[in-house]
Design brief:
Layout lengths: L3 E7 L4 E2 L8 E2 L4 H7 L6 E9 L6 H13 L4 E5 L5 H8 L6 E5 L12 H14 L3 E6 L2 E4 L3 E4 L4 E4 L8
Length: 168
């Protein structure tokens, strides 16, 4: 079985709320804990690349993520990422051949009981094992090609990129 490399970059999935006077803060990644609770037996390795809210991820940070993925020996990669700029990072990763790269995140911190994090990570983990090489986003119960999805803030979910009607 091919080891899946899980790269963490921060985002809501790893946020923690300390008390009523605090703001959310990105803390140590909870991904290993989520995979342990799910009793994942497929081999994986978790590496932290960044610890940032995705709004704060710069082009230099994206270049660091891309370099990390290019240099990785694993061909199956899951990246946890904040949802606000996940699609930008997916586009930056598009030129990497022969690897299945799946980005995922959460709209509520994984530490919350009603978070979508565990489900999204599970979907991403499965997609990394079964999808053809390419870049994908696994979120909201769907797997999207990385360049064919946008975050719809009003609906609070990811949706396919609107297509223009065929001209006739």
């Amino acid at each position: 079985m091919n080891t899946i490399l899980v790269l963490t970059t921060g985002g809501t999935i790893d946020k923690q709320y300390f008390d009523a006077l605090s703001q959310y803060q990105i803390t140590d990644s909870i991904i290993t804990r989520l995979l342990d609770v799910a009793r994942v037996r497929h081999p994986y390795r978790v590496e932290e690349v960044l610890r940032k809210d995705s709004i704060d991820i710069t082009d230099e940070d994206r270049a660091q993520i891309v370099a990390h993925v290019r240099q990785a020996q694993c061909s199956k990669i899951v990246i946890t990422h904040g949802t606000d700029t996940m699609t930008l990072t997916a586009r930056a990763l598009a030129g990497i051949p022969d690897k299945t790269i799946v980005l995922t995140g959460a709209l509520a911190p994984a530490r919350f009981s009603e978070s979508d994090a565990a489900f999204n990570v599970g979907m991403a983990f499965a997609a990394a094992q079964t999808a053809a090489p390419g870049v994908y986003i696994a979120i909201n119960g769907s797997i999207f090609r990385g360049n064919e999805v946008v975050k719809d803030r009003e609906q609070g979910c990811f949706v396919p990129v609107p297509t223009s009607p065929a001209s006739g």
